[in-house]
Amino acid sequence: QVQLVEFGGGLVQPGGSLRLSCEVSGSILNIYAMGWYRQAPGKQRELVADIIIGGRTSYPDSMKRRFTIARDDAKNILYLQMTDLTPADTALYYCHAQGSRRLRGRAYWGQGTQVTVSF
After folding, report:
1. Which of 36, 39, 42, 113 is most enclosed, with most CB atoms within 10 A?
2. How far apart are alpha carbons 15 and 24 in whole angstroms?
3. How far apart are the C-alpha atoms of 49 and 89, rounded to whole Å?
């Protein structure tokens, strides 16, 4: 099993920055990929960024200039650095882990952390 817990959400002004953290525990060596997703009220959950076991990252075009995903293997923490935030970035942000075949290919999710961009 894999456990994910997000931290760092809160209220930030437009144009501001925020860093989210995801603490990972459990079968860490059996995680194939990780990522950040977000979901605003009434909208579908969407990918923000992901990172695979070798460290390669990917972003949707709308995210890659402002959001950066990073992994600290020594501390077992996944980060999402967000800059130049706008009200459209307001959402519940989720940490995600994709298990390998040893974990039966299961997907794991954190509980989410709220990010609100407003004056």
Report:
1. 36
2. 29
3. 14
Check pLDDT > 90 for residue 62.
Answer: no
How far apart (Å, rounded) are the C-alpha atoms in residues 11 and 18? 9
Write out pLDDT tens, residues 12-53: 999 999 999 999 999 998 999 999 999 999 999 999 999 998
User: Residue 99 CB: number of other CB atoms within 10 A?
Assistant: 19
Pick the closest to residue 118 from 89, 93, 94 (CA basis).
89
Strand partners, 15: none
Cβ-contact 31, 99 below 8 angstroms: yes
Question: What is the Cα–Cα distance from 9 to 18, expressed in whole angstroms?
Answer: 8
What's the confidence (pLDDT) of residue 57? 95
Residue bearing tokens 């509980």: 111
Number of H helices, E strands in the chain: 0, 11
| CA atoms within 13 A of residue 71's CA, in its CB half-sphere | 21
